[in-house]
Design goal:
430 residues, mainly alpha, 2 domains, 9 helices, 89% helix, 0% strand, coiled coil, Centromere protein E
Length: 430
């Protein structure tokens, strides 16, 4: 039993020694790597200092001395050295923390070794006292107690190993949690930066909207007289259209009435001419040689013929007056048409001006009173009243088509030709 226990304890001690040697080897490797890194850092620092010295000598040797260049070189070197110092502090702090951890671990191992040594000393002293003369039963009980303690120690070591494994798992979990927290912090910072940028953009948009609103108010204030003038021109144009339509209706009625009177006069004149012609033909067939005598002896017939000639003259004068009146009505219609065209052109110019002002103003918000749209202006220009006024040739006749005018149709009618042919003979006969 003693040899087996001694061999077991020797194996445990050798394993612990091997673990301690491995830890010391890792510590030595870390120390060597840190020394190599320190040497490399010192070499890089020496190179940087030499470069700084060269730059400083170049800046000082230049004539005249450029103080901004010198200030720039010194500020760059100060920034580099502060960054180097900060990095060195961080690396040294990391090394100090590592060494402190190792020192704590060594202290813990030392305490464990001392406690174990005291236990072994107590056990050895107990065994020695038992060997020196203690009863056998007490020694057996001590060995049994020692075995129980060994079992408890093994269980405790197992529990400690399990606790170490759990601690490592918890350490990994904590590292992952710290990593996720750092990621969340970075994401939060990015979101805050984006939020600030979006707030700045919103503020710029609000300022732009306010500026556009002010410009819109100014444009509305400046455009209000033109809008009022345009409304007045619309009203005036509408009233002019109404007047023109009423005048056209009156002219139509008057022309119809004159045409009726003219037709009646032509019919009566035609009847008188027919009667005169028949009477002249009858007298010529019976009294060809006695025409002068009959006229001298029958003054009543002379009076009738003179009255017929006077009636014809009056009818011709009335026809001429009617034709002159028709001509005047046509000229009045043409003048009103020119007036309407002038007002239309002025309305179109005002509409183009208002549209240009609307194009110059930003279309962000609607105005209090919008300008007339294209559909409204087209509806106004294409209204039935406008169609009546812009097509007067259907009523009065176009000057470019003389055959369509009532004056030319009356002058070129067969009745008028008949009157013109028979006029000379009637006047001679009267």
């Amino acid at each position: 039993d003693f040899r087996s226990r001694w061999g077991q304890r020797l194996c445990e001690l050798l394993d612990k020694r091997r673990l301690h040697l491995q830890k010391m080897q890792s510590i030595v490797e870390k120390l060597q790597s840190n020394m190599a890194a320190y040497v490399n850092n010192e070499r890089a620092e020496i190179c940087e200092e030499e470069k700084f010295t060269q730059q400083l000598e170049a800046a000082i040797s230049s004539q005249p001395i450029s103080f901004p260049n010198l200030d720039r070189v010194l500020s760059q070197e100060a920034g580099r050295r502060s960054a180097t110092v900060q990095t060195s502090k961080q690396s040294l702090q990391f090394l100090v923390n590592e060494q402190n951890d190792l020192l704590d671990e060594l202290k813990q191992l030392e305490a464990e070794g001392e406690s174990q040594l005291r236990d072994e000393e107590s056990k050895s002293s107990t065994l020695l006292r038992a060997l020196e003369g203690a009863p056998l039963k007490k020694e057996v009980s001590l060995l049994r107690d020692n075995q129980q303690l060994v079992l408890q120690l093994q269980q405790a070591e197992t529990n400690i190993k399990m606790l170490h494994a759990q601690m490592e798992e918890l350490e990994d979990i904590r590292t992952e949690a710290n990593h996720s927290v750092s990621q969340h912090k970075e994401a939060t910072q990015l979101l805050q930066t984006e939020l600030q940028d979006s707030r700045a953009l919103v503020q710029e948009k609000d300022d732009a909207i306010q500026t556009l609103k002010n410009k819109l108010r100014e444009s509305e204030t400046n455009a209000s007289p033109s809008a009022a003038e345009q409304e007045g021109l619309r009203d005036k144009l509408f009233q002019t259209e109404l007047k023109l339509n009423s005048a056209l209706d009156q002219h139509k009625l008057e022309i119809q009435r004159m045409n009726t009177v003219l037709r009646e006069k032509e019919a009566s004149l035609r009847r008188l001419k027919e009667t005169l012609r028949k009477s002249q033909q009858g007298e010529e067939s019976i009294l060809q040689g006695k025409e002068l005598y009959a006229r001298l002896t029958n003054p009543r017939e002379v009076v009738i013929q003179s009255s017929i000639a006077l009636e014809k003259t009056k009818l011709e004068e009335k026809v001429q007056q009617l034709q002159l009146k028709i001509t005047e009505l046509e000229s009045v219609g043409m003048g009103q048409k020119a007036e309407i065209s002038k007002w239309k052109n002025r309305a179109i110019k005002l509409k183009g001006k208002s549209k240009a002002e609307v194009d110059r103003t930003p279309p962000s918000t609607p105005t209090k009173r919008g300008y007339p749209s294209t559909s409204d202006s087209e509806r106004l220009l294409n209204s039935p009243m406008n169609k009546i006024q812009v097509t007067p040739k259907k009523v009065l006749g176009s000057p470019r088509k003389p055959l369509d005018s009532p004056k030319m149709s009356l002058l070129d009618s067969p009745k008028n030709k008949f009157f013109d042919e028979a006029g000379g003979s009637d006047l001679l006969s009267s």
